[in-house]
C-alpha cells in the first residue's frame, strides 16, 4: 500500500467513495453505474487539477516519499548484467553510494548513484543515503575506470546531502567532493546525471557534474533543504513551505534558470506509483541523450561541458536597466 501525501487527501476520500459504490454494486446487486461513472469523472478531474498544479512544497513531499524508486530500482529496470563494485581502495566501502558496470541496450556503461534504504534497518546500513568520503572516492574510482575503457557514465542523484558527521570530516569529506568536481569536469567520456529524488547540497554535486543534467518532474535540487533555509532566514524550521516557494528548487524553476537540461515527466501522482512505468520515461530520455553525446569528439564533448557550466547564472541587463545605470 503506497502511503498518501497531505495534498492527496481529497483524492483519497473520493477514491474511497468510489470503491464503496463499486463494492455495493457487487454485494447488493444494485445498478449504480451512472453514479460510478459520475464519480470516476470527478476523480479524474480532481487528479488533473491537483497533480497539474503542484506547489514546490508538494513536490518536496513527493521527492521524499518513502516508496520513491531508488538507484537500484532503476538499475534493475534499465540495465542488464549489472555488476556492483565495492570499495574506494583507500578506506572502505560506503553503501550510501552504489556503482558498477552494466549494459544499456548492448552498450557497456558505468552506473553510479546514491542509495537510501526502504526501511529503517536498510536506511541505517546505507546511512540514509548520505555518503561518507569513501563513497565519493569509490564513485571517482569507477569513473576513472570508465574513462580508461571508454564507457559512458550515468549518475543517479538522490541524497539529502553528504554526511556532515565528525568521522566524515576526519576522513576528508570536503576534499573528496571537490576532487570529484574537478575530475568529472575533465572526464573524457560522456556523463549523464539524473536527479531522481532529492538533490541536496554538495552531496548531490559530488555526482552531478556532467554533460547533461536531467531531473524527474517532482525532484528537487538545491544548496540546502527548505527546513535548513527556514532555520537560517527566519530561525523557524516550520516555515519550510514558505522557503520552498522562494528557493526555486523544482525542476521547472531550474530548467527556466538553465541549471538543468531537461525534465523527465513522472507517473501521475509521482514515481512511487510505478517504478516500472517511471523507468520507461527515463529510458526514453536517456537513450536520446546518450545517442547525442556519443556522436561528439572528445574535444567537443569537453568544450561543451565547460561552456555549459560557464553559462549557468549568466544574465543580461534590459535596456531600461542599462539606462538607469
Automatic annotation (TrEMBL):
Q: Which residue numbers delimit the CoA carboxyltransferase C-terminal domain?
A: 38-288
Task: Tell me which Gene Ontology terms the entry assigns under biological process.
Answer: fatty acid biosynthetic process; malonyl-CoA biosynthetic process
Annotated keywords: ATP-binding, Coiled coil, Cytoplasm, Fatty acid biosynthesis, Fatty acid metabolism, Lipid biosynthesis, Lipid metabolism, Nucleotide-binding, Transferase
Q: What is its EC number?
A: 2.1.3.15
Q: Which reaction does it catalyse?
A: N(6)-carboxybiotinyl-L-lysyl-[protein] + acetyl-CoA = N(6)-biotinyl-L-lysyl-[protein] + malonyl-CoA
Q: Where in the cell is it found?
A: Cytoplasm
- Which pathway features in its UniProt record? Lipid metabolism; malonyl-CoA biosynthesis; malonyl-CoA from acetyl-CoA: step 1/1
What are the protein's GO molecular function terms?
Answer: acetyl-CoA carboxylase activity; ATP binding; carboxyl- or carbamoyltransferase activity
* Family, per entry: Belongs to the AccA family.
Question: What is the protein's name according to its record?
Answer: Acetyl-coenzyme A carboxylase carboxyl transferase subunit alpha
Amino acid at each position: 500500500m503506497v502511503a498518501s501525501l497531505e495534498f492527496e487527501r481529497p483524492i483519497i476520500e473520493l477514491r474511497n467513495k468510489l470503491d464503496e459504490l463499486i463494492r455495493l454494486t457487487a454485494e447488493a446487486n444494485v445498478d449504480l453505474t451512472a453514479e460510478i461513472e459520475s464519480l470516476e469523472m470527478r476523480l479524474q478531474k480532481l487528479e488533473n487539477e491537483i497533480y497539474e498544479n503542484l506547489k514546490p512544497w508538494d513536490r518536496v513531499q513527493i521527492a521524499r516519499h518513502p516508496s520513491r524508486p531508488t538507484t537500484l530500482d532503476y538499475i534493475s529496470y534499465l540495465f542488464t548484467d549489472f555488476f556492483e563494485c565495492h570499495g574506494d581502495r583507500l578506506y572502505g566501502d560506503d553503501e550510501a553510494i552504489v556503482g558498477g558496470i552494466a549494459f544499456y541496450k548492448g552498450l557497456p556503461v558505468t552506473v553510479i548513484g546514491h542509495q537510501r534504504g526502504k526501511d529503517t534497518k536498510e536506511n541505517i546500513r546505507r546511512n540514509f543515503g548520505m555518503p561518507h568520503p569513501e563513497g565519493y572516492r569509490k564513485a571517482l574510482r569507477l569513473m576513472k575506470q570508465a574513462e580508461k575503457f571508454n564507457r559512458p557514465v550515468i549518475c543517479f542523484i538522490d541524497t539529502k546531502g553528504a554526511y556532515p558527521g565528525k568521522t566524515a570530516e576526519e576522513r576528508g569529506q570536503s576534499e573528496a567532493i571537490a576532487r570529484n568536481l574537478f575530475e568529472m569536469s575533465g572526464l573524457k567520456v560522456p556523463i549523464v546525471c539524473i536527479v531522481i529524488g532529492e538533490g541536496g547540497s554538495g552531496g548531490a554535486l559530488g555526482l552531478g557534474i556532467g554533460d547533461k543534467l536531467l531531473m524527474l518532474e517532482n525532484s528537487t535540487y538545491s544548496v540546502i533543504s527548505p527546513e535548513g533555509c527556514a532555520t537560517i532566514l527566519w530561525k523557524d524550521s516550520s516555515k519550510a513551505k514558505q522557503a520552498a516557494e522562494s528557493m526555486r528548487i523544482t525542476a521547472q524553476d531550474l530548467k527556466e534558470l538553465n541549471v538543468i537540461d531537461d525534465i523527465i515527466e513522472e507517473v501521475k501522482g509521482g514515481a512511487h506509483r510505478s517504478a516500472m512505468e517511471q523507468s520507461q520515461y527515463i529510458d526514453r530520455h536517456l537513450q536520446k541523450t546518450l545517442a547525442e553525446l556519443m556522436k561528439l569528439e572528445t574535444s567537443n564533448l569537453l568544450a561543451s561541458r565547460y561552456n555549459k557550466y560557464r553559462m549557468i547564472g549568466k544574465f543580461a541587463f534590459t535596456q531600461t536597466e542599462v539606462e538607469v545605470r
